[in-house]
Amino acid sequence: MNSNPKETKDINTINTIGCTDTGDNNRESDKDEGSKKIGVFICKCGGNISDFVDVERVRQAVSQEEGVDIAKVNMFSCSDSAQEEMIGKIRDSGLDAIVIASCSPKLHLQTFRGMAKRAGLNPYQYVQVNIREQCSWTHTHDREGATEKAIRLVRAGIKNAAMSRPLAPIEIETEPCVAVIGGGIGGMRAAISLAEMGLKVYLIEREARLGGMVRDKDALFPSFEDGQRLIQALSERINALSNITVFYNAEVVEKQGTVGKFLLTVEITGDRSSDDIKKERLTLKAGAIIVCTGAKSYTPSEDEFSYSHPRVITIEEYLGLLRQTKARGDGRLIVEGRPVTSIAYIYCVGVPKNECSRYCCSLGVFSAIRAKKLFKDISQYHLYREMRTYGSYEALYQRALSNNDIFIKCPKKSLPQLIPKGNAVTIITKDLLTHKEEIEIEADLVVLITGMVPAENNGLEDALKLPIGKNGFYNEIHPKLRPVETVIDGLFIAGCAQSPKNAKETVESALAASSKAASLLLGRKVALEPFVAEVIGDKCDGCGLCISSCPYEAITIDDDKGMAVVNEGLCKGEGACVPVCPNEAIQLRGFEHDKIKAMIRALIKMGE
User: Fold this and answer.
1) pLDDT at residue 163, as a whole number
2) Does residue 70 contact residue 99 with C-beta atoms inside 8 Å?
3) What percent of the chain lies above the pLDDT cut of 90?
4) Is the pLDDT of residue 112 over 80?
5) Residues 548, 549, 551, 556: what is their CA dihedral angle, to the nearest 10 degrees?
6) Which has the closest alpha carbon to 379: 416, 409, 410, 340?
7) 235 and 210 part of one domain
8) Cα(159)–Cα(349) distance, integer angstroms
9) Residue that finishes a domain, picked among 453, 468, 486
10) Mean pLDDT for the stretch of residues 424-435
11) What is d(CA 5, CA 75) in angstroms, rounded to the nearest whole number?
12) Residues 462-481, buried b or exposed e (16+ Cβ, 10 A)?
């Protein structure tokens, strides 16, 4: 990123449609506040709202507000029939703005914007007021209070609509190229998908080989597919696509620009095993970025479950041992020169008590099934807190049961104790399935089923400003509605960089991210929300306080004009710059100072 806040690169320049341009809409509505005709539509949401909010009383109260031409109650405002009725009202009454009091805008913001546009109204002169999550669902015990709160919120929404101005999205021309960071199975599959859609791809891998955690696996669950062969096949597909460029031993160390026009600085290191390490830097242009940097398996400390003992190993070490045994082909599992006849698997190692690493239960049970195929007479014990072989992986659990594996449910607050004894390990634990009876198990080998933890990518996180969740993994906007998008437009996350996943889930996530990136870039232009910071020139004295408050480095100082300027492509409209300005010289478009103050006055207005 640019270390000089006063310098503006060409990469940051954007094309912006004028903020009063209504595009294809039939009617502009930039009238004065008092002359606007406003329609208010209040939703019952079945009974979700009307069971706890008196919607008719809300309608009556707000129908008298200045500028309100129509106030109507709908059963389901999002239904096709209700939308068509509202379109008719907008057209017939010549409404200049509308307020819809219903559910969270996270659900139907785009629905109602599209409806407003079809009616010939500027979509940014529709205001949504949330009286479901913020009123009816929050105050189920207080119908009177919920109704009064709904009235006040709708009043504020009416004032918002009255003072709204027609806006249009910020339009940016895009670079038809995607930088995929991380060359594991997710990054490889994302790169292939993007290249096959006609986009140029830079695949940036910090190791000397592609494949990540899958590269050395000889069997993936539940299909027993050879991971080594899978990675080889993907590598051949990548080599056959001329629009994919792979950078090995490479890391992204700097980012400039914005969605559609990112500028990445990549540092390439030579042979890391050599004392004479040579570094090369190059600059790449990309319209979007997909982060597939993966994760790593937890490594226990030496005294954790007696991990320092040679007969206590992690699941990753165990998989390597099975691979060696399979290659040897003698049908025996050998540890320290002695055959193994009993194995104990201890689950949730390294996983916080109130969290779950998801994939490791299925991996542990799958590994036990593999062992049973290789070594017919082996005895196996599974010591777990909760067994979560979710979805179709339940079949793995059932198969392990049919193999006569023994499953022991341990107390969450009382971990199994391991006591090494010669060539074996004694495990003492309580079994909740037998009324907390204390039992002892003697095992020739103990396998610690370790969870997945975030990979160390401090340099990348600093360069990209990656959002990090409470668990240390990269954070998406919404796990269901926007599962691979981040708060930074054009920056996507996928695979185990985001959360623990198995290989199948990683690929699915990577394909979702590549689809999102392609949808941005194939049209060669991207539209961003117009709700960005804007500087009021005659009030700004160029003090620069807003620069240090902006987490996205979207504000610089124009030395010639002596005032702050906003890069609209970088600005996220989160508003940290607004309260720090002593002169009120910066505000958010669509949430101007005068409008916010008017909405507050409407909220505290007394009487109905």
Assistant:
1) 95
2) no
3) 77
4) yes
5) -50
6) 340
7) yes
8) 56
9) 453
10) 93
11) 52
12) ebbebeeeeeebbbbeeeee
Q: What's the length of the chain?
A: 608
Which residue has tokens 């912006």? 16
Residue type, 322: L
Q: How far apart are CA 404 and CA 388, in angstroms?
A: 19
- What pLDDT shows up at residue 271? 62
Do 272 and 324 fall into the same domain? no
| Number of separate domains in the chain | 4
Pairing assessment for the beta strands 334-335 and 338-339 based on DSSP bridges: antiparallel
- Supply the range of the domain harboring residue 487: 177-294+455-525
Question: How do residues 166-206 score in pLDDT, each as one tens digit?
Answer: 999 988 899 999 999 999 999 999 999 999 999 999 999 99
Query: 487: how many CB neighbours lie within 10 A of its CB?
Result: 16
Residue 177 CB-half CA count within 13 A = 17
* Rounded-to-integer distance, Cα 424 and Cα 306, Å: 12
Instruction: Indicate if 83 and 146 belong to the same structural domain.
Output: yes
160 and 263 inside one domain:
no
- The tokens describing 438, both together, are 């204390």
Contact criterion met (CB below 8 Å) for 464 and 289: yes
Report yes or no: 452 and 298 within 8 Å, Cβ to Cβ.
Answer: yes
- Taking the C-alpha atoms of residue 161 and residue 571, their distance in angstroms, rounded to an integer, is 24
If asked whether residues 147 and 242 sit together in one domain, one would say: no
The CA distance from 560 to 159, in Å, is: 38
Q: Which among 223, 229, 226, 179 is positioned nearest to 199, based on CA atoms?
A: 179
In 287-366, which ranges are E strands?
Answer: 288-291, 295-297, 312-314, 334-335, 338-339, 342-349
For residue 196, which amino acid is it? E
pLDDT tier, 275 (very low <50, low <70, confident <90, very high otherwise) = low
The answer to whether 154 touches 168, Cβ cutoff 8 Å, is: no
Q: Quick check: is 518 in a domain?
A: yes
The amino acid that residue 464 corresponds to is: L
- Distance, C-alpha 443 to centroid of its chain: 42
Question: CA-CA distance, 33 to 164, in Å (whole number)?
Answer: 8
Strands 417-421 and 424-431, by their bridges, are: antiparallel
Asked, for residue 443, whether it belongs to a domain, the answer is: yes
Pair 477, 493: CB distance under 8 Å: no
Which residues share a beta bridge with 297? 452
Question: Tokens representing 519?
Answer: 């949808």
Please give the Cα distance from 58 to 251 (Å, whole number). 57
Q: Are residues 44 and 155 in the same domain?
A: yes
- CATH no. for residue 562? 3.30.70.20
DSSP structural state of residue 482: B
C-alpha–C-alpha distance, residues 534 and 585, integer Å: 9
* pLDDT tens-digit series, residues 297-321: 999 999 999 999 999 999 999 999 9
For residue 591, which amino acid is it? Answer: F
**Cα gap 50→75, rounded to integer Å:** 9
Q: Which single residue is written with the structure tokens 């970025």?
A: 289
Residue 6 lies in a domain: no
Q: Which helix (H) or strand (E) holds 60?
A: helix 55-62
**For residue 508, what is the domain's CATH number?**
3.50.50.60
Q: Could you tell me if 218 and 326 are in contact, meaning their C-beta atoms sit under 8 angstroms apart?
A: yes
- Are 442 and 407 contained in the same domain? yes
Alpha helices in 329-447 (DSSP H): 359-374, 394-402
Count of C-beta atoms within a 10 Å radius of residue 98: 25
